[in-house]
Amino acid sequence: MKETIQNEKYVELKYQVIDEKTGDVLTEVEFPLGYVHGVNKVLSTPVASELEGKSVGDIIEVPIDGHLLYGERDESLVFTDLLENVPEEYHEVGTTIIMENEKGDTKNFIVTRMDDKTITVDGNNPLCGRNVIFRLEILLVRDATDEEVAAGGKIENGPDIDGSLTVPL
Description:
The structure is a single chain. By secondary structure, this protein is mainly β. Helix content is about 10%, strand content about 45%. The protein has 2 domains: about 10-70 and about 130-155, Chitinase A, domain 3; about 75-120, Thrombin, subunit H (Beta Barrel). The chain has helices at about 45-50, 65-70, 145-150, and strands at about 10-20, 25-35, 60-65, 80, 95-100, 105-115, 120, 130-145, 155-160, 165-169. The chain has a 4-stranded antiparallel sheet. Strands 4-7-6-5 form a 4-stranded antiparallel sheet, with no helix packed on it. A two-stranded antiparallel sheet has the order 9-10. It is elongated.
């Protein structure tokens, strides 16, 4: 009998995020993402709910309204500046820039456009305001160990420091 996804099962899957309008793959994770179902909140509630009862080999597609997960676009988080005012290591579309406000709070901005004179960065989540489809392929379902339940995912052993101790990462 196949194991099915339910609370306290260890699950590994790979997924894609697809723009519903264009069909373009926006994000793809090919290496297994592992978590303990019902314990680790790595997946949004609608996606986790759709995984309930599924098993290895199943592929599901879950439409998600980006407005609900990430909110509306905030155009005040989009800045254009002269290229000469931005350090050269950020002169590439797709580069993430971590900015800090006067309170010390940080926010990620992504370089979205560049031309010969200007650069534009955007602090909105790339999925906000978009309708997307999460396409997930289930690779593994098994009982989670007590340690995995406590950690919310797989326990990885670290290096053997002095021959007597292994430290979880």
